[in-house]
Amino acid sequence: MSGREWLMWDEAVTGYDFGDDHPMDPVRLALTMGLVRAYGLDKAMDVRAAKSAGDSTLRLVHREDYVAAVKAASAHPREADQAYGLGTVDDPAFVGMHEASALIAGQSVAAAEAVWRAEATHAVNFTGGLHHAMPGGAAGFCVYNDASLAIARLLELGAERVAYVDVDVHHGDGVQAAFWDDPRVLTISLHEHPGSLFPGTGWPSETGGDGPGEGSAANLALPAGTGDEGWLRAFHAVVPELIADFRPQVLVTQHGADTHFEDPLAHLAVSLDAQRVVQESCHALAHEYADGGRWVALGGGGYAVVDVVPRSWTHLVGIAAHAPVDPESIIPSEWRDEVYARTRQPGPRRMTDGRKPVWRAWGEGYDPADRLDQAVLATRRSVFPLRGLLP
Q1: Residue ranges of E strands in the chain
Q2: ∠ CA 155-157-158 to the nearest 5 degrees?
Q3: Is 132 a catalytic residue?
Q4: Which of 14, 130, 190, 390 has a CA 20 to 30 Å removed from the CA of 92?
């Protein structure tokens, strides 16, 4: 064991760039790493740059014809094959797309390998979490599904139980699809209700494939407008019990920051402070149930690229480094200068939204008139009995 946790970073990941008008601006990655450095967290972890995922690794999840289509579109973007989801509004093709996508995937795979081999207890790749990509197609700003590839690599190395928890505002559909029939992988996704947000999946009734996969997926579809109290109540009403029952050897988590009330593409109303509470909870669950703390933490969505994403993921890095950032701290001026230089926007001044989230535990009672409680109960009734648990 190295005695230090890993942070995956290569400046070249900012080449994952769909263009100036696309909401997934790679500046969010550069600004996050800049804030990590401003707080000295790069000194508290081993910062590693992994090689790109090769074809044999990509084929753990993705079809060979799809990888070939990505390579072709990467070389000739105007000829991208939209049958594979490439060259669309969501996933415009760009020169070097394959290389940038494979590099991000390589960071997540290397993080998983390090955790499995006990080279690190925790490993973070905030550039990853591209959870919508399917085996045969791009979707939702995601070309290669690094989260699924990391899990598939863990299985290849001998893992028998891997839990995946996704708290992005969008359903983790690509990861669920990759392991739909595989009882070795438990996927749990908390997301905005599919009736009001892309990708339109993630209903409580989606509980895994027939046969051995039944009960291997859990989906909590939250009403639009859900804020801190409801989001935290929902998380703690579902996730800890399922993780305690499954007892994964490795916990993989996806921390899309787009649940935030400032995010322009979704409709939840979660604060930075509640996001940090869930990050801390995932860390604690890893230490309690995942072979002493085997935790791979990924980024994901997040389109308030200055005010929210860098702060949220810097908190995640600090938690994984066992050097949490004080929410009340004043953000270093050198980072705010970097923000202005890159974006001509003023950066946030503190690492908090000024909230102190509290929530009511599920055991304190169910309100049948509350839409949030209805959503939680629907999930518990759908998946808990399949795992031998009470709803």
Answers
A1: 5-8, 45-48, 122-125, 162-166, 185-192, 217-222, 250-254, 295-298
A2: 65
A3: yes
A4: 190
Q: Which of 98, 131, 132, 170 is catalytic?
A: 132
Would you kindly state where each structural domain of the chain is located, as residue ranges?
5-387
Contact call for residues 142 and 132 (beta carbons, < 8 A) = yes
According to the model, what pLDDT value does residue 2 have?
44
Burial of 287 (0-12, 13-18, 19+ CB in 10 A): middle
Residue 117, token pair as written in the block: 């081999």
User: Does the structural domain 5-387 have CATH classification 3.40.800.20?
Assistant: yes
List beta partners, residue 163. Answer: 186, 251
Q: What's the rounded Cα separation, in Å, for the pair 204 and 193?
A: 10
Burial status of residue 229 (CB atoms within 10 A of its CB: 0-12, 13-18, 19 or more): middle
Q: Report which secondary-structure segment, H or E, holds 230.
A: helix 228-246
Decide: 98 and 124 in contact? Cβ < 8 Å.
no
pTM of the model: 0.98
| Cα–Cα distance list, 207 to 124, 181, 185, 381 (Å) | 28, 10, 12, 11
pLDDT, mean over the chain: 97
3-state secondary structure of 242: helix
Q: With 70 as the cut, is the pLDDT of residue 326 above it?
A: yes
From residue 383, alpha-carbon distances to 187, 240, 317 in Å are 11, 14, 31
